[in-house]
Amino acid sequence: MIWLTWRQFRTQAAVGLALVIAVAAVYLSTRSTLLDIARDTGYAACTADCGKLAQQFVQTARTGYLGQLYQAGALLLILLPALIGLFWGAPLVSRELESGTHRLVWNQSISRNRWLGVKLGGIGLATAAVAGLSSWAITAWASPLDEVDGWVVPLTYAARGIVPAGYAVLGFVVGVTIGMLLRRTVAAMAVTLVVVIAAMVGGVFFREQLVAHSTYQEALPADWDGGISLSPDDPNHAIRLEVGPPEVATWVLTNKILNSAGAEYRGPYDPDYCGPNATKGGSGPKGCRDWLTSQNLHQKVTYIANDKFWALQWRETGVLLVASSLLAIFCFWWIRRRVA
Amino acid sequence: MTSAAITKNLTKRYGRKTALADCSLDIPAGHVVGLVGPNGAGKSTLLQLICGQLAPTAGSLTVLDGPPVTGSPRIGFVAQDTPVYGNLSIEDHLRLGRHLNPSWDDDLARERIERLDLDPKQKAGKLSGGQRAQLALTLAIAKRPELLLLDEPVAALDPLARREFLQGLMEYVAETGTSVVMSSHLVADLERVCDYLIVLVKSKVRVTGEVEELLASHHRVTGARVDPEKLGPGRTVVQARHTDVQSSLVVRSTAPIEDPAFTVDGIDLEDLVLAYMSEAGNGRDRILEKQR
Fold first, then answer.
1. Percent of chain A, pLDDT > 90?
2. Chain B residue with minimal CA distance to A108?
3. Best of A1, A109, A119 to disrupt the B interface by mutation (most B CBs within 10 Å)?
4. Nearest to A4 among B75, B100, B136 (CB)
5. Helices of type H across A183-305
6. Model confidence pLDDT, tens digit, residues A207-218
7. B-chain residues near A100 (CB < 8 A)
8. What are the structural domains, with CATH classification, of chain B?
9. With the CA atoms of B187, B190, B192 and B198 taken in that order, what torsion angle do they form, in degrees rounded to the nearest 10?
10. What residues contact residue B266 under an 8 Å CB cut-off, 6+ apart?
11. How far is Cα B52 from Cα A272, in angstroms, rounded to an integer?
């Protein structure tokens, strides 16, 4: 059965291997260029207060072909689960059912369980290997950039570490399951695409539930920086403050300004200090700022910091593998009971 | 072992559709059994139940003295339309068979492919229908099964390929004495090779028996218009056709019919089977006939 699985899968396996080799070659060979930029901008040698140099490094690195590689890497790892579901998963059983060859192979001296088990296990492992190795090369390549931008920024996070392998395995099993249910390769491919995309979008919303959120709550300092928006014609004198999150908050979930009672602050503002008709507190917006500072306001930010990266990665991958296993168990049940 | 398969009240339903109803059969071992019936009669369902690919809705069956099992090394199955992997070569198919069957006879398989003048490197998708059927048969018999099931193996073949396929099958059976059950909707395909017949119409078994016995006990009776009821005891009218002046009956009777009023002739297998098939299909016509 292993021989047959390999014989039927070898073309796809070659494509997968070629992809891994290409990704590894491209990213491992250009990593030194990226490190050269870190050195040339002075960021690599910097020891303290490196914010500005870091930004300069990222900006230089993101222009030119390295920037394109950065984006291509993210795109590849985000598309990979759908592609694997489409081309490795969906046809696996549906093509046999469509062409009737399941009647040939299931009448050899082999049980359906073993037939499906070897296929799911073997190609599932190949899927994890292709996605895992690609992700490893891209994660390693982009690590100097991610160190500056943050690992848990949602778009970066989904294309780093082991999560891409988790989604790829799920995509594969989803494809197999849908192919088995629909018994039509093309229809199964279309539905698989939709389902895998839905699962990945769902993952974005579901991810933040996997770790405890950190909270930052501090009084608004005297030198606070941020935007103020108000409407001079509003009889309620509503006002909104937008203050940037602290640096530790890589992935910001909520960012609010609270009043002294702990409710979200919406005004009312004092038209003597704020707005176009302000007369007190000096000229320009500074009077309004100082007045707002004196209102005893707090900034409250809930966030997920960089140090939660691996906890998130392991937990999300765990959830994905459990979901994949449940689908696989369903496949074994279905192929015994429902497929003639 | 005297029976290849025994079924008792075997029923298979797909949702509301009944594919096989209340089928009780004893398929003898050591015969080439023809399973004949029109399309949709339940032949494929019966064969797939025997090889364990389907589970019955009701009733029971015993295959080779045990319960049916999928992937049994003791049963060879050539599925309808003789499916093969189009992108694998003949050689690959033989390796597939060797890897997946503990009792695989590689010499037999290779010898057959050679005798058929097939190039092992050729992709199975490029084979003609006849060659594809031969490849599927090779896979099934190189497994060295005790029971070989063939589901409409020649339905899609041209007459020459049909003859060659059946010839190959018969040579193998003559050498090994394997029990064979082969289905077809055409009696002509089975006539040459089968020595036992099962007629299945509308998911029900109409008649079973050894071909010689069936031929000996069925008669075509023609004569002046007769009432089929008056033929006497021990005689069953399988089919009756009447014109105003003449009747033509197919009658089953173990004793010879000796009545000067009729002409009694033998009947060939095709007419015999057709009589059973039309009897099942034309219940309504016979009622009309009586009312006239």
1. 52
2. B71
3. A109
4. B100
5. 185-206, 286-293
6. 989 998 999 988
7. 79-81, 83
8. 3-202 (3.40.50.300), 217-291 (no CATH)
9. -90
10. B215, B219, B220
11. 89
